[in-house]
Write a structure and sequence with these properties.
heterodimer, A: mainly beta, 6-stranded mixed β-sheet, 4-stranded antiparallel β-sheet, globular, B: mainly beta, 7-stranded mixed β-sheet, 0% helix
Chain lengths: 115, 116
């Protein structure tokens, strides 16, 4: 069975600080990787995803993530955070195989940006 | 964002009640999912429907009964629930293309369920 670990459950940063949220997964096969974000009072939204190709993927709102296969990692980064980035961030894994399959999520990281 | 809608948004029920959660997707997708989001736990997959057929039941107790009458609608029928079933129930949908192509899932706002 696959699992996802997000090491930081709560992160507090000041505006303009750089951000890196860790995500590691355990699965021996080919995976598809996602970061979702849940802003206060809103539903889960896709931030970015990796299916294949360039391991550095760019998402919305200036976020990017790098897939490092040898480390089973898919860390999320942003060079300069804003107050509006305050939200819950979830890393998720989908085993490659096509069709409909459930996502395996990490526990989430609650990010608070102080003005 | 009105791609995936869920009703009701909040529900309070007693342990002997019977209620249903509804999900509707307006994205032309073929696969629909139920997830449970409890406090301090990762989102857990409950059920998967692909082209109206249930393809996954993630060891969910029988007091949760899903129904998928067509590719646009998904229900979760609830009966004889326990207080520990209180959680946010999320619905998602994806295109589900034939062949070995990965899917992106799009989520609804959820139903906040409280069982007394």
């Amino acid at each position: 069975a696959q699992s996802v670990s997000q090491h930081n459950h709560h992160v507090i940063l000041s505006e303009a600080a750089s951000l890196e949220l860790g995500c590691n997964y355990s699965y021996g096969g080919t995976v598809n990787l996602f970061w979702y974000v849940q802003y206060p009072g809103q539903h889960l939204q896709l931030l970015l995803k990796y299916f294949s190709g360039d391991p550095l993927v760019k998402g919305i709102k200036g976020f990017e993530a790098e897939f490092i296969k040898s480390k089973f990692s898919f860390n999320l980064r942003k060079p300069s955070v804003q107050w509006s980035d305050t939200a819950e961030y979830f890393c998720a894994v989908l085993s490659a195989g096509g069709g409909a399959d459930g996502l395996t999520f990490g526990k989430g990281t609650h990010l608070i940006i102080q003005p | 964002e009105t791609g995936v809608t869920q009703t009701p948004r909040h529900l309070v029920m007693g342990m002997t009640n019977k209620k249903s959660l509804k999900c509707e997707q307006h994205l032309g997708h073929n696969a629909m999912y139920w997830y449970k989001q409890s406090a301090k736990k990762p989102l857990e997959l409950m059920f998967v429907y692909n082209f109206k057929e249930q393809t996954e039941n993630n060891s969910v107790p029988s007091r949760f009964s899903p129904e998928c009458p067509n590719s646009s609608h998904l229900f979760l029928h609830l009966h004889t629930l326990q207080p520990e079933d209180s959680a946010l129930y999320l619905c998602a949908s994806s295109l589900s293309l034939a062949g070995a192509l990965p899917d992106t899932q799009y989520f609804g706002p959820g139903t906040r369920l409280t069982v007394l």
